[in-house]
Design goal:
The structure holds two protein chains of two kinds. By secondary structure, chain A is mostly helical. Chain A has one domain (about 1-300). Chain A contains eleven helices and no strands. In chain A, helix 5 (about 120-150) runs antiparallel to helix 11. The mean pLDDT of chain B is about 85. By secondary structure, chain B is an all-alpha fold. Chain B has one domain (about 1-320). The longest helix of chain B has about 40 residues, at about 20-60. The chains are: A mainly alpha, B mainly alpha. At the A-B interface, helix 2, helix 3, helix 7 and helix 8 of A face helix 2, helix 3, helix 7, helix 8 and helix 9 of B. Chain A: It comes from Methanolobus vulcani. Chain A: This is ABC-2 family transporter protein. Chain A: One of its GO terms (molecular function) is ABC-type transporter activity.
Chain lengths: ~300, ~325
């Protein structure tokens, strides 16, 4: 019961935070924009293809088939995969950080624990609020995507199910980052360090591991259509890939999301990926591991702690 | 002048002692080295693929049409530019934030002014101290680049290559300082330091990652792995001729990219290092002339940032009341 009271209080406080609304607005706006960007790009590239056909015909050359002729209906939301990796996970870190540091910033940790409150209740309250807020945000994004896909393309029960699956995977992915933000918010005595460490982990997962393991340049990993690479031709790169790929959470997330949206032909990595079930298991392990870090952080949490430093 | 230098020295020492920055610096250096290593392995893989294709063609009695991949050492630095874009901006934001946060947390702003120190000394002292730290960080990165080239072996740099590295070093320092001035400004302007940091990270997210991402994904050539025009067998002039019919779309895409300081930095950095192949054999002064707008944009934003910092420190009374 106490856990629920803490959770309610956390959610209420979060919705009073201006900065939370700022990042939330960016995420919602980009969700709105992503389908339009996808739709607009799709129409333009189709026209570019038609124009290229005219040029080839005039030159009397063979005309290759259009690479855009059989695009799946959910192709227009493919950018959302990248926005979850970029904005969604940072939003989750921000929420986790805000929930983790709130009581310390207000200097009420000692008062709270003077009541019949256990560390377990405290952690449960924080975890519930974190999960609920992120669930609500993911739900809003899902509704926006469904409406925008229905307006700009088509929607059916099968496509709706695909979108729900995609957002469920995204929720698991983002929640892991949320738990990290929460853990370091509880662990660290300085607010900036508590925010910085999960951001560094995010940089490593989003950019460094895909580059080291799959030879993807950091900015190339921001494009849902990945460049052609045949890295497995190099024994050394192949060996590095085999070692690092299991830990490359963002790549597993991208592969799984692409599959659920039906984009496997154009957006998955060009090299050996794991079967979907293994990628999904890795995402679940990621979530459990970050949850474990949260449990550990609260077990070592000093209940006599005073204010947190900025 | 002496007071300003004293503040600059104190600022530099504070950062240098901070564990947070040691961690970020080590991270940047490790990523620099691994990025060069991965690029080298990719290049070697391309060469070996070319050689096996060549052997196959020759065994079939055919003549190869494509030239062998040529190593331009600075091309291997694409990942380094990428990391400075992302992590460099984070360093700038944290430096600006901590520079003000430490004064606000310890309530030393008033104390500073009770001494014979002017506001100008404080503002420019802090900017100078942080500038020196950023410069040192980027010099370390440049040293790591040279050390990585040495370790890989078989890479020789020309005098022009060194000038190019120097040019990107200067540009990188200016780029990171743009984020420093932004964060410095917001940390003074906002009542809550946490809010300032979050706003900075939101701006960072939008301008460093989201806007360049939108621009990139709107590029028709990026819609097919390996490039759409390559899949159609088009060369550059043919590609340009086709895209001329879509000037409105291309201008919008370009405008979105131009909104981001990161894209200006990236375009200039990629041109100088020859990541865009057309710059590989272009004389260095011509590259600089071609990229003048991107270079001026980065330095222009830095100048605007310094001006804004000085302005808010002079005008904002609240900044001095804590």
């Amino acid at each position: 019961m106490l856990s629920l009271d803490i959770a309610k209080n956390e959610v209420r406080h979060l919705f009073r935070e201006r900065t939370f609304f700022l990042i939330l607005s960016v995420f919602i706006l980009i969700t709105l924009a992503s389908t339009y960007i996808g739709w607009s790009s799709q129409h333009t590239v189709e026209s570019v293809y038609q124009q290229s056909v005219l040029t080839l015909t005039a030159a009397g050359k063979n005309i290759p088939p259009s690479p855009f002729s059989n695009l799946p209906p959910l192709d227009i939301v493919k950018n959302m995969i990248i926005y979850v990796v970029l904005i969604g996970s940072l939003l989750a870190i921000t929420i986790g950080h805000a929930i983790g540091t709130k009581d310390q910033k207000a200097g009420v940790v000692r008062i709270l624990f003077s009541k019949p409150l256990t560390k377990k209740d405290y952690l449960m309250g924080k975890l519930i609020s974190m999960s609920m807020v992120l669930f609500a945000i993911t739900g809003v994004s899902l509704i926006i995507s469904v409406i925008s896909v229905a307006i700009l393309s088509q929607i059916s029960s099968a496509l709706l199910l695909n979108l729900i699956e995609f957002y469920a995977i995204s929720y698991v992915y983002m929640l892991g980052f949320g738990f990290l933000g929460l853990s370091f918010g509880l662990m660290k005595k300085e607010s900036a360090t508590a925010l910085l460490i999960p951001i560094i982990i995010w940089v490593l997962i989003t950019f460094a591991l895909p580059e080291m393991g799959s030879a993807l340049y950091p900015t190339s990993s921001l494009n849902p259509v990945l460049p052609q690479t045949n890295i497995l031709d190099s024994p050394m790169l192949s060996a590095i890939h085999n070692v690092l790929y299991p830990f490359s959470i963002s790549e597993h997330y991208k592969v799984l999301s692409s599959l659920t949206l039906g984009l496997q032909q154009t957006t998955t990595t060009a090299y050996v990926a794991y079967p979907p079930l293994i990628s999904l298991s890795i995402l679940v392990i990621w979530l459990l591991a970050t949850l474990g870090v949260s449990v550990r952080s609260v077990s070592g949490f000093d209940i006599s702690r005073g204010d947190i430093y900025e | 002048m002496n007071n300003m230098l004293t503040i600059a020295k104190k600022e530099f020492q504070d950062i240098f002692r901070s564990r947070t920055f040691s961690i970020i610096l080590v991270l940047l250096l490790v990523l620099t080295a691994t990025s060069i290593l991965v690029s080298t392995l990719v290049f070697k893989s391309q060469v070996s693929q070319y050689e096996s294709s060549l052997a196959l063609l020759l065994s079939m009695g055919k003549t190869p049409t494509e030239a062998a991949p040529q190593l331009y050492p600075l091309n291997l630095l694409r990942g380094v530019v990428d990391y400075i874009e992302i992590i460099g901006a984070i360093i700038g934001i944290l430096l600006g934030y901590l520079s003000i946060a430490k004064e606000k947390n310890t309530r030393t702003m008033k104390l500073l002014l009770s001494k014979p120190i002017t506001k100008k000394d404080i503002v420019f002292g802090k900017i100078t101290g942080n500038f020196l730290f950023v410069s040192l960080t980027i010099v370390f990165v440049a040293a790591m680049i040279l050390a990585s080239f040495l370790a890989i072996g078989g890479i020789s740099l020309t005098a022009v290559d060194y000038y190019k590295i120097l040019a990107v070093v200067i540009l990188s320092i200016a780029y990171i300082m743009v984020f420093f001035t932004l964060s410095f400004f917001l940390s003074i302007q906002q009542k809550s330091l946490s809010n300032a940091l979050m706003i900075c990270f939101t701006i960072w997210l939008v301008f460093v990652l989201v806007l360049p991402q939108i621009g990139d994904t709107m590029d028709p050539d990026n819609q097919v792995p390996g490039g759409f025009f390559k899949s159609m067998g088009f060369d550059k002039p043919q590609e340009k001729a086709v895209m001329a019919k879509f000037s409105g779309y291309e201008n919008t895409r370009d405008f979105i990219e131009q909104l981001s300081v990161t894209k200006h930095y990236e375009r200039a950095g990629f041109a100088i290092f020859g990541v865009k192949t057309k710059y590989n054999d272009m004389p260095f002064p011509d590259i600089l002339a071609d990229q003048w707008f991107n270079i001026v944009s980065v330095f222009g934003l830095l100048a605007a940032g310094i001006f804004a910092d000085a302005f808010i420190m002079y005008r904002n009374r609240e900044a001095w009341s804590v």
